[in-house]
Amino acid sequence: MATISGGLPDSAACALKIARSFSISSFGTWSRDTHSGRTAPGAAGMDRATADYMGMLATLMNALALQDAMRRAGLVSRVQSALSIEQVAEPYIRGKALRYLEENKIVIFAAGTGNPFFTTDTAAALRGREMGVDIVLKATKVDGVYTADPKKDPSAKRYPSLTFDEAMVKNLKVMDATALALCRDQNMLLKVFSIFAPGALKRVVMGEDEGTLVHC
Question: Are residues 42 and 17 part of one domain?
Answer without folding.
Answer: yes
